[in-house]
Amino acid sequence: MQLVDVQVTLHWLELGRGTSDSVVGAAVVQCLRKVFEEAQSAVLEPMMSLQVVVPESHSARVTADLARRRADVQQIHTRQDNKVIECIAPLSELLGYSSALHSLSSGLASFSMELRAHRRMSPHDEHKALKHVTGF
């Protein structure tokens, strides 16, 4: 079962005098983390189908950059003097990709992408994402 855009509503809370907002926030996060761990939940990330058209002279740099972005290269073929790189990559790794591709290819490459599916994150990447969102 997938949970998307989970919202939690607290209907009643009784606090002692002098209880800070940060203590309440930390307690809520701990409770939610425990609920999701016991439910054996997992974080899913959007995966994008990505097609990059790049001059052959710049293709090695672009391919290396895609590997660094956790892209799974499916196919590379030639179209005229260009390489067409077809891959699947996490959307989170493609933020700012337009500028990066422009720099890597001296402005000669182009790309298109579309949502392909959602995939379970690796435990390491899930931990990094949760730490980024929650701060711990």
TrEMBL record:
Residue ranges of domain Elongation factor EFG in the record: 42-129
SUPFAM superfamilies registered for this protein in UniProt: EF-G C-terminal domain-like
Single GO MF annotation: GTP binding
Organism annotation: Papilio machaon (Old World swallowtail butterfly)
GO CC term, one of those recorded: mitochondrion
SMART domains recorded: EFG_C
Pfam families given in the database record: EFG_C
GO biological process: mitochondrial translation; ribosome disassembly
Name by which UniProt lists this protein: Ribosome-releasing factor 2, mitochondrial
Keyword vocabulary terms for this entry: GTP-binding, Mitochondrion, Nucleotide-binding, Protein biosynthesis
